[in-house]
Amino acid sequence: MSAAPARPVRVVVCDDQMLVRTGLVTIIGAQPDMEVAGECADGRAAVDLARKERPDVVVMDVRMPVLDGIEATRLLAGSGVRDPVKVLVVTTFNLDEYVYEALRAGASGFLLKDAPPDRLLHGIRTVASGAALLDPEVTRQLVGRYASRIRPSEDGGDREVPLTPRELEVLRLIADGLSNSEIAAALVISQETVKTFVSRILSKLQLRDRVQAVVYAYRRGLVS
């Protein structure tokens, strides 16, 4: 008996520019493994639509009327949200504060609108799978760009982090932008063991993915 076909990735598109929104909807809707669950033109509508449709991914613009994309992301995917929705922020503005605030708000990834369609589609599939869009090299660049602006929280520090010394070591390497294979080589352990450590870290700290782990480590002053 053949396996049942995989359910298509359901996507909500939110952008206040009709031409851009139509283009995104057309590109996404043309994919055999995706379907557009809805579209809207402002952040408030995005929150309402996503809560109603429960898509796999929301493609979210940043600058929009009524409610901006950062706040909409926070309402859908931020800390304390009981049933978060995965958000891929797509914007024309490549500014440090937008990148950082989007990820801190709970976004699973960040893309520029001038990225080619295949990168957008890869980003949607990556985020839908539960992974962060940022690969290790992008993480290194991102951290290098805004890390100096991230102030460690006053109550930060190792004593406040419920991790074992080994887990803390792995977290610091994640924050440095190392991949699982690089962490395995650095610690002389297997990649499967690294995956286990990463899973434990995310679970203990109640983080969704590696992007949040990077932000957490810098906010806690665990790396500099």
TrEMBL record:
Q: Note whether Phosphoprotein occurs among the keywords.
A: yes
Cross-referenced Pfam families: GerE (PF00196), Response_reg (PF00072)
Q: Which SMART domains match?
A: HTH_LUXR, REC
Keywords assigned: DNA-binding, Phosphoprotein, Transcription, Transcription regulation
Query: Known Gene3D superfamilies for this protein?
Result: 3.40.50.2300
Q: Which residues carry this modification: 4-aspartylphosphate?
A: 61
Q: Which domain of life is it from?
A: Bacteria
Domain HTH luxR-type: where? 156-221
Domain Response regulatory positions: 10-128
**Name of the protein:** Response regulator transcription factor
Q: Which organism is it from?
A: Streptomyces labedae
